[in-house]
């Protein structure tokens, strides 16, 4: 299967970033270049993660071939000296090297890694920062947005240019180093990996503790419910702020829209801003502008182009925040209602899960036949918490193994890194499938700890990945930048953990194709022998700080509330506030569903006869005097679709059930017809 596994993985890996982009981005609303840049950056990073185990197995196979060629060459060179001693010192037969099922021929992986790595680096350092500023710009033309993006990134690009020139001067002043093109590439890679490793250790130290704790706490329904109340209270404040910002932006847009008529040169810019407003706001402003277009007596003040650019940016930001908080609020309410239902159903004797509110969507065949209320009760109330606890224990063991290996991977005699021990044991038997699975599980766990932190972290309101298609373009591009900067040093660190990086393990063996692209780190010995080895040991301190919630407590002291425990005063206040908000929303939804059920009952009871009567033509069966007041006992009722004196109640939902309201007569179809001669309907006040 020469290269077949590589082609299959290249195709299958594409669907993972596509799924994530569909979950967090919006294919219809966001710019195609933003979607393409984010998808390409995520795709390249996932390719590195999934293809690296194949590189490891191929390297081990190549090492086996070289080890078998050495005694064969020794035998051929010393054949003249081994005439009489051949029987005393018999030569060992070389071990057969079985080709792995995922073997990749020579020459393919170096080209592949070179294309993937340098493309991702060009994206993260050059294109994506420019696209970020372009997407966040409030300009009305392409040239205006490009100009704004270049100005904003001038400081950004200048800073990295100064750092690169400093490293270049550092290498040039040392005569023992020859400044070649390969050396420049190595310096660039070392600088990028150093920056990435600095951030990687911070995120990894947080994720190694937070991921197992997250699953362990997910098995505690009381903890989850209290934390959800806390989130509801925080989100209610954010939702209120977003609505106020939206109202302020719309008020300013309305004032400017009123002052600038259709013939003004800035009218195109105003129309561009209006298209970013909600649809009802657009219709209202167009109507008001049409009404005021003929009034030229009032003196108008016209804004400047720069103020319109600033307003455009403000409207875009306010609209995004308003939409995000609305969607998050609906999702969080459903989560809170579900957790309250779980707590109520835990004491149920019938062992059937009962929901407080009916789902808006009808259940599919899976929920109707397989996921029955009984199975749902056992999963939600019994099995789920034990599965989460077991998963938390397994993840905790992996976290301990990672922390131990990060502190001891530089030791090769004896081998102290646990992952290196596992790979070397499998290498003796050339069990390539086990090697690839062990590498994949290890690197996947490292990626989950790092990437989950990237998806969950929030830098105020500038960077925040929101699911359900609510992430803005700036955050999507920023996540692509982080992925491209974190993945290469993460994979290089993984190769160091399993002793496949010769620059760290100092072993004479065949290097992987990935490390050959990274270049020889011995050119910068203070990085290869110092920073790359001792800096990852800080993971121990970061794990302890995360377990003790030191960062969360510091943020609380600075005025950014985070959930710690209910013993904290601020946390308990927000939990109580969230509980009251959920009670209010539950009452509102209950009243709404009760009203809908009453309407449904009335429609089921009287809807059929009403539809039959509506299909008939209008008719009149009154007596010749055409007055229902002459003889009310024998007068016939009249259906007049456009009558002025006889009022027909068209909405059955507003029928009065009190017989003492006014003299009415009930029709056979469940309808009430007024016999009064007044033009005012008697049910208008209902």
UniProtKB/TrEMBL annotation:
A Gene Ontology term for the protein's cellular component? membrane
Q: Where in the cell is it found?
A: Membrane
Determine if Coiled coil is one of this entry's keywords.
Answer: yes
**GO biological process terms, semicolon-separated:** adrenergic receptor signaling pathway
Keywords assigned by UniProt, alphabetized: Coiled coil, Membrane, Transmembrane, Transmembrane helix
Q: Where is the composition biased (Polar residues)?
A: 628-637
Origin superkingdom: Eukaryota
Residue spans making up a coiled coil are 232-259
Task: Specify where the region named Disordered lies, as residue ranges.
Answer: 586-637
Q: Which residues cross the membrane?
A: 6-21, 33-52, 115-134, 154-173, 193-217, 386-404, 433-454, 474-498, 533-550
Q: Where is the composition biased (Basic and acidic residues)?
A: 590-607
**In what way does this protein cross or attach to the membrane?**
Multi-pass membrane protein
Which protein family is it in?
Belongs to the LIMR family.
Q: What is this protein called?
A: G-protein coupled receptor-associated protein LMBRD2B-like isoform X1
Species name for this entry? Salvelinus namaycush (Lake trout)
């Amino acid at each position: 299967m020469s290269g077949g596994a590589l082609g299959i993985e290249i195709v299958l890996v594409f669907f993972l970033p596509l799924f994530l982009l569909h979950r967090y981005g919006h294919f219809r609303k966001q710019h195609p270049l933003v979607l393409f840049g984010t998808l390409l950056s995520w795709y390249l990073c996932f390719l590195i993660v999934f293809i690296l185990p194949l590189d490891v197995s191929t390297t081990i196979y190549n090492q086996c071939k070289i080890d078998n060629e050495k005694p064969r060459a020794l035998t051929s060179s010393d054949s003249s000296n081994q005439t009489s001693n051949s029987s005393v010192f018999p030569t060992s037969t070389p071990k057969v090297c079985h080709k792995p099922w995922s073997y990749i021929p020579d020459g393919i992986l170096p080209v592949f890694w070179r294309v993937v790595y340098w493309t991702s680096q060009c994206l993260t350092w050059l294109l994506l920062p420019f696209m970020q500023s372009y997407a966040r710009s409030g300009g009305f033309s392409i040239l205006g947005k490009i100009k704004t993006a270049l100005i904003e990134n001038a400081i950004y690009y200048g800073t990295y240019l100064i750092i690169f020139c400093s490293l270049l001067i550092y290498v040039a002043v040392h005569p023992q180093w020859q400044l070649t093109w390969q050396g420049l590439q190595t310096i660039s890679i070392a600088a990028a990996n150093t920056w990435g490793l600095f951030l990687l250790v911070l995120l990894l130290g947080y994720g190694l503790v937070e991921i197992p704790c997250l699953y362990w706490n997910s098995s505690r329904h009381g903890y989850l419910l209290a934390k959800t109340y806390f989130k509801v209270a925080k989100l209610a404040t954010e939702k209120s702020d977003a609505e106020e910002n939206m109202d302020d932006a719309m008020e300013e847009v309305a004032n400017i829209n009123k002052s600038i008529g259709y013939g003004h040169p800035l009218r195109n810019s105003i129309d561009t801003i209006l298209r970013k407003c909600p649809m009802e706001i657009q219709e209202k402003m167009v109507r008001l502008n049409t009404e005021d277009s003929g009034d030229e007596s009032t003196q108008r003040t016209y804004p400047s182009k720069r103020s319109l650019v600033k307003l455009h940016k403000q409207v875009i930001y306010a609209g995004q925040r308003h939409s995000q908080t609305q969607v998050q609020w609906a999702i969080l309410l459903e989560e809170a209602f579900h957790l309250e239902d779980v707590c109520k159903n835990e004491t149920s004797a019938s062992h059937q899960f009962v929901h407080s509110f009916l789902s808006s969507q009808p259940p599919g065949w899976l929920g109707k036949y397989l996921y029955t209320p009984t199975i749902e009760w056992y999963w939600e109330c019994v099995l789920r918490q034990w599965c989460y606890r077991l998963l938390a224990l397994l993840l905790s063991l992996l976290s301990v193994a990672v922390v131990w290996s990060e502190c001891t991977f530089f030791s090769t005699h004896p081998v102290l890194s646990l992952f290196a021990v596992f790979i070397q044991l499998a290498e003796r038997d050339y069990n390539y499938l086990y090697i690839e699975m062990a590498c994949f599980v290890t690197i996947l766990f490292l990626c989950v700890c790092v990437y989950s932190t990237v998806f969950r972290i929030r830098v105020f309101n500038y960077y925040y990945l929101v699911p359900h298609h609510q992430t803005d373009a700036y955050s999507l591009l920023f996540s692509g930048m982080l992925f491209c900067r974190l993945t290469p040093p993460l994979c290089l660190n993984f190769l160091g953990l399993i002793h496949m990086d010769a620059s760290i393990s100092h072993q004479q063996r065949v290097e992987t194709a990935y490390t050959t692209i990274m270049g020889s780190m011995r050119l910068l010995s203070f990085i290869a022998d110092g920073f790359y080895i001792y800096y990852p040991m800080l993971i121990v301190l970061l794990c302890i700080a995360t377990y003790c919630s030191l960062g969360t407590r510091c943020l609380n002291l600075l005025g950014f509330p985070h959930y710690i425990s209910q013993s904290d005063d601020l946390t308990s206040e927000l939990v109580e506030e969230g509980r009251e908000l959920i009670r209010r929303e539950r009452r509102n939804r209950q009243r709404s569903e009760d009203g809908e059920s009453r309407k449904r009952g009335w429609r089921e009871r009287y809807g059929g006869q009403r539809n039959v009567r509506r299909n008939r033509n209008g008719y009149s069966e009154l007596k010749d005097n055409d007055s229902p007041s002459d003889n009310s006992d024998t007068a016939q009722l009249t259906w007049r679709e456009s009558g002025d004196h006889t009022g027909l109640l068209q909405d059955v939902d507003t029928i009065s059930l009190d017989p003492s309201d006014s003299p009415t007569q009930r029709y056979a179809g469940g309808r009430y017809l007024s016999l009064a001669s007044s033009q005012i309907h008697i049910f208008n006040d209902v």
